[in-house]
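Tutorial sheet, problem 5. The two components below are modelled jointly, 226 residues in total.
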Amino acid sequence: QKEVEQDPGPLSVPEGAIVSLNCTYSNSAFQYFMWYRQYSRKGPELLMYTYSSGNKEDGRFTAQVDKSSKYISLFIRDSQPSDSATYLCAVSSGSARQLTFGSGTQLTVLP
Amino acid sequence: NAGVTQTPKFRILKIGQSMTLQCAQDMNHNYMYWYRQDPGMGLKLIYYSVGAGITDKGEVPNGYNVSRSTTEDFPLRLELAAPSQTSVYFCASSPAGGGGGTEAFFGQGTRLTVV
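Model answer (structure tokens):
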């Protein structure tokens, strides 16, 4: 079993749609949960991070963690063509700041 | 600030050749990492370092070596290149201290093809 499973996509939505991206993880030791965004042929960049269970909102983006079900979500409201990218969930136990990544979901927002 | 700089950006190697992927960061971060990214597979950790002189294996270290003689530099060495090492390689760094959610900064990647 992979430590982090991510919906593979690809996902294509019209501009203005609400996007839901999801991951599940298997190790209850993970305490830090992140979403990275990766544009084509670029390195990943941190989009959101949360610690433990709960929600965190930043503009059009909301990250949600449910530790009881080991489920991580990222919601994008009013999606824009500029949101077209691959979204990677990542988890960490905090030790040495090592990140374990999901396989990524490729999102395309159509104008 | 340049952040994390990787060189080269692209490289084609023949089977059995060796090369070093360079990574430098100017943020004075203690933690540095090497990941490889294969299509549809996410990023897998190859090696990491928590400070100069200290390195450790990640999930997929076979066929690679690293060194960390300075805080700034973290080169990745490929010995006897194999087609299975065809991938995109990312170097990343993050600061010591703070919470585990401290951001990891990634370089632009090195696209390596072994033929």
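Marking note: The interface with chain A takes residues 4, 31, 33, 35, 40-45, 48, 50, 56, 58, 90, 92, 94, 99-104, 106-109 of chain B (CB under 8 Å). Full credit if you identified this.
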